[in-house]
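Input record, target 12 of the design panel.
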């Protein structure tokens, strides 16, 4: 059934209240036919588990280059061969999984709806440890240097031991009364954990101690009601080289120096799905599913693609000479990296793609909300 994205419905309701009259909700853009200039081939498709009952969760595939790992809301977890899609192992955790997996230190880490953090052996799927963290986890954890970094909906960022899940440190930010469903996944480098929060702030913290290295406000909550004061950091926070890129709902996209916290540039945009980055550009999906390319060096606009308006588009990912996003009907869209025009389209599944696709070598992997995991590649016509 066609539906408008959750955050856009909220915006429409807000607009109606401010206007004092009933407003008609704009439908998502219809897909327009175009001549494809890329040959997209589906390599394989498999099923990890059952769907998510239209919940907006942080379930997305992870990979070590040879295997792809995925989990489903019904507790099923599986590993597949990246090249063939052959199932390597499968486990039933009998838990409601809401985020993950985070991969590193030979473990897969998931969050659950009951407020648990779960670690499985990457080689077999057997449980290594499970700890209660007291709040739902809705973003994939990050694993680096034997530290698991994770965000929970109560506003806490925590570092846990990859060996046994014991808490090493905690950073607390007070969440606002009203937040958007889904949270920004933290990123971990060899020395720092970087995370966004529902109060519109982004911070970097010592990976070993949690000590604050810097914090930057990306958006300030303003307005007469809670809806207008929503300033969640978009899901697709990125660390690229020595730079941090983040975007906030009803705020701005921002570039930050990882080492100092110095703001390099800013661009006014409201984003919930978040952003992606490559060596030259930062790609932002705005609150109306427009995709904007910004120069990494100064944040100036290179191009804007608005043909997917209100289609609940994911954060963009750079894949070869294209930028790829998924949408609420399970389609993937390839956009030209130089000017944003459409290059190709393929359907990954019959349900929404919530998380950004994952690039593994020459292949692109995606997980849909119905538990489908699929791999695509580009075919060279001259081959």
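The sequence produced for target 12 reads:
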């Amino acid at each position: 059934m066609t539906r408008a994205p959750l955050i856009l419905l909220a915006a429409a309701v807000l607009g109606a209240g401010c206007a004092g009259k009933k407003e008609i909700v704009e439908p998502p853009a219809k897909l327009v036919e175009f001549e494809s200039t890329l040959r997209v081939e589906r390599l394989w498709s498999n099923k990890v588990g059952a769907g998510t009952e239209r919940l907006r969760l942080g379930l997305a595939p992870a990979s070590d280059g040879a295997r792809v790992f995925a989990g489903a809301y019904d507790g099923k977890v599986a590993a597949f061969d990246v090249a063939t899609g052959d199932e390597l192992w499968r486990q039933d955790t009998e838990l409601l999984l809401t985020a993950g997996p985070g991969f590193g230190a030979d473990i897969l880490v998931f969050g659950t709806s009951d407020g648990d953090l779960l670690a499985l052996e990457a080689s077999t799927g057997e449980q290594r440890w499970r700890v209660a963290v007291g709040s739902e986890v809705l973003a994939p954890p990050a694993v680096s240097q034997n530290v698991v970094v994770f965000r929970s909906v109560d506003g806490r960022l925590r570092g846990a031991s990859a060996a046994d899940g014991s808490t090493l440190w905690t950073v607390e930010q007070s969440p606002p009364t009203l937040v958007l469903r889904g949270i920004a996944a933290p990123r971990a480098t060899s020395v720092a954990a970087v995370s966004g929060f529902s109060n519109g702030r982004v911070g970097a913290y010592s990976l070993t101690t949690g000590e604050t290295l810097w914090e930057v406000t990306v958006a300030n909550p303003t307005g007469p009601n809670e809806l207008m004061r929503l300033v969640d950091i978009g899901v697709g926070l990125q660390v690229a080289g020595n730079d941090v890129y983040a975007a906030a709902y009803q705020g701005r996209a921002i570039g930050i120096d990882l080492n100092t916290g110095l703001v390099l540039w800013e661009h006014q945009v409201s984003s919930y799905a978040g952003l992606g980055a490559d060596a030259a550009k930062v790609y932002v999906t705005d609150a109306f599913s427009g995709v904007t390319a910004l120069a990494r060096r100064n944040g100036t606009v290179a191009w804007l693609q608005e043909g997917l308006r209100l289609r609940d588009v994911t954060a963009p990912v750079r894949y070869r000479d294209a930028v790829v996003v998924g949408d609420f009907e399970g389609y993937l869209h390839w956009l030209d990296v130089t000017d944003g025009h459409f290059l190709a389209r393929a359907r990954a599944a019959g349900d929404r793609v919530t998380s950004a696709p994952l690039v593994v070598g020459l292949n692109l992997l995606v997980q849909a909300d119905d538990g489908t995991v699929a791999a695509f590649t580009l075919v060279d016509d001259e081959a």
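The first strand starts at residue 39 and ends at 47.
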